[in-house]
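=== RUN LOG ===
request id: a7f3
mode: sequence -> structure
chains: 1
length: 149
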Amino acid sequence: MGDGRMTSGIDSYIKCQFSLPDTDIRTYSPLVFAYIGDGIFDLIIRSVVVGKGNAKAGTLHKRTSRIVKAHTQALMAEALEPLLSPEEADIYRRGRNAKSPTMAKHATMADYRKATGFEALVGYLYLTDRFERIVELTKTAIEKLHLAV
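=== RESULT ===
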């Protein structure tokens, strides 16, 4: 691995490159999972949007924002819930039930909580080096909901 190539997940690679210690993620709150999950989900959607072709930054932002907003994430969570493993369902539930000190603008409390659960699941999967599962779930939800990305 000394040649700089990534042989495990993205998070493990970053930890290695920055000499970060291994931590027991079981000590993390669901809101920590949601914090990192928000960024990872945004990155995936931005990658898909940019991959569909060159456009003005404002256009790319609008396309991305339609998907990463709380309401759409809530719909995605609802569509995916029956497909989650017991472990994934538990993480989603913990994220959904976490008491957040803030709330997204233009979102109902129900949507915000489901979106937080979805982001917590994404964050947990990322921190456990299961990026492929995140992409699989994202792709499945986009297809099930017929979302235009």
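=== NOTES ===
The two ends are 35 Å apart (CA to CA).
The mean pLDDT is 92.
=== END ===
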